[in-house]
Design goal:
This protein is of the alpha+beta class. The protein is 21% helix and 20% strand. The chain has a four-stranded antiparallel β-sheet with strand order 1-2-3-4. The longest helix is centred in the middle third of the chain and has 10 residues. The radius of gyration is 28 Å and the shape is globular. This is DUF3558 domain-containing protein.
Length: 143
């Protein structure tokens, strides 16, 4: 009976004779050559497994529209730009046509895994919301 039980037998063919060792070693299978992954799953550069950073304008614009208090108080104009993100906080600058630009503050809700618009305005959007250590990391927060 002929059974190819090992890679060596499969490579040498099927025979009732015992395989001869000619010094060649069978190449490891793909499964054997891959090292199992340990640790957390890979993420985008700068991202942590639980954090929302980095974040794009489209995601923040959805959060902006979802908060009627913020979206009614601030004119987004052509959208959000100049995004800065650190430690589950983000800021972005609006692009209105005939008014001053405003800063919009966002916070990532790790439980809901979504961004929330927190505040917005032309002055002090981060004030009383963002921890001092994080304010230093967000370029659109003016202290």
């Amino acid at each position: 009976m002929c059974v190819a039980a090992t890679a060596a037998l499969a490579l040498t063919g099927c025979s009732d004779d015992a395989p001869t060792n000619n010094g060649a070693v069978a190449a490891p299978s793909v499964q054997e050559s891959l090292t199992p992954q340990t640790g957390p799953a890979p993420t985008k550069p700068g991202a942590s497994p639980q954090a929302g950073c980095p974040v794009d304008a489209a995601t923040l614009e959805k959060a902006f529209v979802a908060n009627l208090d913020v979206s009614n108080a601030v004119d987004i104009g052509k959208g959000l730009t100049d995004i800065s993100c650190a430690d589950d906080w983000a800021t972005a600058v609006t692009q209105p046509e005939a008014m001053d630009k405003a800063t919009v503050l966002f916070q990532y809700d790790t439980g809901k895994k979504q961004w929330l618009a927190i505040a917005g305005g032309t002055d002090g959007a981060c004030r009383s919301h963002v921890p001092a250590a994080v304010v230093k990391k967000l370029k659109n927060c003016v202290s």
